[in-house]
Amino acid sequence: MAKIIDGKAISSQIKDEVKEKVAELAAKGISVSLAVIQVGADPASSVYVRNKKKACEYCGIKSLSYELPEETTEEELLDLIRKLNKMDDCNGILVQLPLPKHINEEIILDEISPLKDVDGFHPMNVGALSIGKPGYVSCTPAGVIELIKRSGYTIEGKECVVIGRSNIVGKPMALLLLRENGTVTVTHSRTKNLKEVTKRADILVVAIGKPRMIDASYVKEGAVVIDVGIHRNEDNKLCGDVDYDSVEPIAEAITPVPGGVGPMTIAMLMKNCLTYFDVAK
Questions:
Q1: What pLDDT does residue 194 have?
Q2: pLDDT tens digits, residue range 72-84?
Q3: CATH number for the domain including 178?
Q4: Catalytic residue flag (residue 245)
């Protein structure tokens, strides 16, 4: 039976650590603040934004909330970001995705100052990660690293396989595993003999975006399996990219869905709000 990696517990540890550091900064007269911009009223986005605000409140981070109507123009949104870039009392800027179709996400994200890019999506921060320089790191892959290490597993020297090559998870995930001295293979929809590759993995990170695709036939016995996916199944219950019931008996450790990677994303966002004080020196 696999060890269940508890993302709720580990995310709580991280938020408590952030809360302590925020209090230390406050004692020196330094405040930490995060601007969260939502355009439109997408129900899922509203839930995420509400959870981010709650996390800010818990950690003692000031939340600057901008809830804009659906018809907001691209230029109006760019003007707001430029204003926030210049504000001394704003340390981080987050634009909740997806944006309405008439707004170009790439243009918007590129306008955020790299010094305030708490999502780690700006090309300068992606470049910094790729060459090992300090900067912001995407919250979900950074959270995966914390899950693995805080659960007592070593990445160094291990065969690591990432399924998925997205800019948000797959690519930064591979770079972070490399940074931890793992031996990394990135697989995707065009990979030949996928099962042969994934069955080599001591650490398997699954971010392929297909519900319960990865069953026991893809997994080496004794592997650490991290499931980044989140979907609704035919019974409207949450599930991941991994067929949990199939894989759990043979894995050494596994993340559940929900309660695995999910809570880590917001915890790492809170941690990224402190990165400003390192990168802005």
A1: 97
A2: 999 999 999 999 9
A3: 3.40.50.720
A4: no
DSSP lists the bridge partners of residue 11 as none
Read off the pLDDT of residues 199-244 as tens digits, 9 standing for 90 and up: 999 999 999 999 999 999 999 999 999 999 999 888 889 999 999 9
pTM, two decimals, is: 0.95
Q: Which of 15, 52, 158, 171 is catalytic?
A: 52
Residues 103 and 37 in one domain: yes
* One domain, residues 143 and 192: yes
Domain of 77, in residue numbers: 30-115
Number of domains in the chain: 2
Catalytic residue among 96, 171, 227, 243: 96
Is 52 a catalytic site residue?
yes
Burial code of 147-167, b = ≥16 C-beta within 10 A, e = fewer? bbeebebebeebbbbbbbbbe
Active-site residue, selected from the candidate residues 15, 38, 116, 119: 119
CA–CA separation, 99 and 108 (whole Å): 9
For 6-41, write each residue's pLDDT tens digit: 999 999 999 999 999 999 999 999 999 999 999 998
DSSP 265: H
Asked whether the bond before 258 is cis by omega within 30 degrees of 0, the reply is yes
Residue 97: count of CB within 10 angstroms of its CB:
16
Is residue 272 in some structural domain?
no
Question: Which pLDDT score, from 0 to 100, does residue 281 have?
Answer: 64
